[in-house]
Amino acid sequence: MSKDEYLITDAPLKALTVFAMPMILGSFFQQVYNMADSIIVGQFVGSSALAAVGACAALTNVFICVALGAGVGAGVLVSRYFGAKNYGKMKTIVSTSLLSFLVLSVVLGVFGFSFSRAMMSGLQTPADILEDAVLYLCVYFVGFPFLFMYNILSTMFTSIGESRIPLGLLIFSSILNIFMDLWMVAGLGLGVFCAVRQDAFSHRNHWINFHAISSRTAAQNMVYYWLNLLRCAVQRCSTVYGTGSGNMLKKFGAVCLAAVLLLTGCSLRPQENGSKGQSISRPAVESAELQFTHPAAGDTVAVFDTSAGVFRAVLFPEKAPQACDNFIGLVQQGYYNCLTVSRVENQFVVEAGQGADGKGSTIWKGSRYPVEASDSLHHYAGALCMGVDASGACASVFYVVESLPGDQSVTQELTDQMNAAGYRAEVVSAYQTAGGAPYLDYTDTVFGQVYEGMDIVDTIAQTAVDENQKPTTDITINSVSIETYQ
Fold it and tell me: In the chain, N or C: fewer CB atoms in 10 Å?
């Protein structure tokens, strides 16, 4: 089990303590960060300058709250798909969030810079500190995109269980801010301008030092990879606007420079599964659980004829009626015929069914249907399941769980968690033999079980894939048919 997954494998108290302590210490250093500005400005510049900085606090907090709220919203989706090991969707969310919030931060920065005087006047700032307050805000908003994006990236890391990296960066930034404040305020006499300039400078260094401090885990590389889009964006801007476009473009370029540094030596999750035909010994499962007592005469089965071979799965319409109705209806319409496998993660899942538009469909004119969780059906190896979209509903996308048998996928920690969660002994025993992904139980719909041709699924899972987990050589579903087991 990866160290990224300690939140779902360690004892709850230990996991929460390890996760929360860096965040608590981070809040402390953030307060030290703010206190240092106030103390240094008050001691070396004067009470008026301190009052000017304080007068801006309420306004700057409003803008920071936007960043925090945006980061938390994106982090919920990132953590959801990270926990489900659906890295393809996770990367889409990360890239969309980073680009969207970068644009938003620039828009808010331009707005704040342009209306600093109007906002401070609207807050009835005393005339004797108005000019200092406006100067502070103007410089603050020039550096606002760095501060905004730091909060977004910090949330991205905490959403995958890595709360120590943001703490390390915050400590570095706080110390740097104090020393630079002392030098530039006390030594160079730059006054209130320097205090806020150092805030922006320190947050810029948050970006640059993500590369120097972070340890490259597979999940973190998902975040790093999509920062490449920022680099591409600045290259495009440089091509169009050249080098004389002013300070705002330079600031934007500095953001992307940090992204480039993050990308140095970075790669996606390694995919060394290009060797085909490696046999996986899967033991027979002696269990009274529904998925291992079928098929029986009269059961409905699905036959998947693929370019890699044929495999068969028994369906359970009584336990997952909507999933089975939709799947069978789409099969009868020929929906799955000639589609290709869209996602492969060796020793985890094989997924297909997105359709030509990449969105999936249903027999109900595209309307989605809810997850049908059942205590009778679980994510054992070979389970045929319906995937969920970003809304948490199901359509045509299905996957087969391809986890390794026994403790190669179901570790002792997972076994202990299942027992603590009240799983039936029969279910735990079946997982210990067959293997699987118990962390997906009650979140996705299981509607069938592969009973023949699991070696074909294993072969598909071992094919080489690109950075999006799509096979580099198409694996085609020639046809899917519905039969009655004899």
Answer: C
